[in-house]
Amino acid sequence: MDSSTKKRLVFWLKICVAGLGLAVLVFAGSRLFKTSLNQPITLNATPTQTSSCRLPKFTLSPINPTNIDHIVPMGRMFGPHVTPTDHIYIIHDENNGGRYPVYALTDGQVIQAEKSSNVGANFAPRGFDYGIWLDYGCGVKSGIGHLAEFATGLAQTVGDKQFVANLHYPVKKGDIIGYTGSRQCCDLSLSDENVTLPGLINQQTYEREWWKLHAVDPFGYFDEPIRSQLLVKNIRTVPPLGGKIDYDTDGTLLGNWYKQGTNGYKGLDNDQAHYYKWHAAFAYNHVDPKLVEISLGNFIDAPSAFFVKGNGPDPKDVTPEIGLVKYELLHFGWADSKTGVEINEDFMHVGDYPKVFDTSTVGTVLIQLLPKRELKLEIFPDKTASQVDNFTSKALLYER
């Protein structure tokens, strides 16, 4: 077996074991994160606080901080999350079977609830995945995903329905709204409609996930001492501490791109299970933003994120005037902060860091930024930059 074939085999094994089950799982539970709320979207709002509407300040963690192992910030690109994720991941410990209560952050109401089939690797059934949206008033809402079950009262209200919008289920600060389970992960997305992210320049393309335009750093909405108790678990130590998702910069390569004719972020109507397939992002690592990261929805028929050889050119410096640009793609992993040894990302801790362990090029992506928010792109698996001269008939046009 030659080295090229070996690299492909290792890549596919990683995808099958770690990515395929996750991709199916994320999509199976993702209806929570679609436009179902029938709430108005404030596209041009600015941060406000008036005497008649005081923005909430949370004094309670969704999970007891003592049970949190670590927190992954927004902006992670992996698997079907080709563009930067708009939620943080609260990774709890495995004690008590991983079952912990999840609390309402303050007074409000559950406005949307879903339970969806949950499957893992090889499509093995893993029960149900539960998610909710809560409205705290003043345009502030939180999405909590990957619960193992709803609390009794909410479960009785939802009944046997798999999806319920326009709920008005009241909650008080500290009420138990659900429980975590063996997945060891709880998603938290915070949306503030008083804020519109400037770095998602084509706002209409995100109608599928309306809150993405208003996704804010959750840590800024927690009061002390909870804020510090959460930040000490956060694996990112540079501002913005909650991460960043909006990188679009007109006239440069930086940000999100979508293949022309595929409905932008939404993806093809006849292939919603792979809505991410024609996404691409040129941004930075969610833990160490000094590192350039390229995320592709269709690298050898699967989504994957990469570091680049030489860590450049920086996407913010790539303009139409530069012409053709080649990026050599490298797989990366996570290193233990004390030993430098590669570790499983699921078991990382504060201080662990991203690192390229195998410097072999897995492919080259050739791009040319065009006027009018267009990008010409072609992926060359198993090719180094020196083996790529120009585009072929397989080149695709992307837009945003």
Strand order of the largest sheet: 11-12-13-14-15-19-20-21
Mean pLDDT figure: 87
Count of discrete alpha- or pi-helical segments spanning 4 or more residues: 3
How far is the first residue's CA from the last residue's CA?
41 Å
By secondary-structure content and strand pairing, the structural class works out as mainly beta
The low-confidence runs, each spanning 5 or more residues with pLDDT under 50, are: 1-51
Using only C-alpha atoms, the radius of gyration works out to: 21 Å
Give helix and strand order, one letter per element, not per position: HEEEEEEEHEEEHEEEEEEEEEEE
Largest sheet geometry: 8 strands, antiparallel, barrel
What's the count of strands?
21
Q: Which of globular, elongated, flat, extended, rod-shaped describes the shape?
A: globular
Q: Percent helix among the residues?
A: under 10%
Task: Tell me the fraction of residues in β-strands, as a range.
Answer: 25-35%
What report would you give on this structure?
By secondary structure, the chain is mainly β. It contains 3 helices and 21 strands. The strands form 4 sheets. It has an 8-stranded antiparallel barrel. Strands 1-2-10-6-5-4-8 form a 7-stranded antiparallel beta sheet, sandwiched between helices. A hairpin with a 6-residue loop joins β16 and β17.
Q: In a few lines, what is going on in this structure?
A:
The chain has helices at 3-28, 152-158, 226-231, and strands at residues 68-72, 88-92, 101-103, 108-119, 125-135, 140-147, 149-150, 163-171, 176-179, 185-192, 255-259, 279-284, 292-299, 302-308, 324-330, 333-335, 342-343, 353-355, 363-370, 374-381, 396-399. It has 400 residues and is mostly beta strands. Strands 11-12-13-14-15-19-20-21 form an 8-stranded antiparallel beta barrel. It has a 7-stranded antiparallel beta sheet with strand order 1-2-10-6-5-4-8, with helices on both faces.
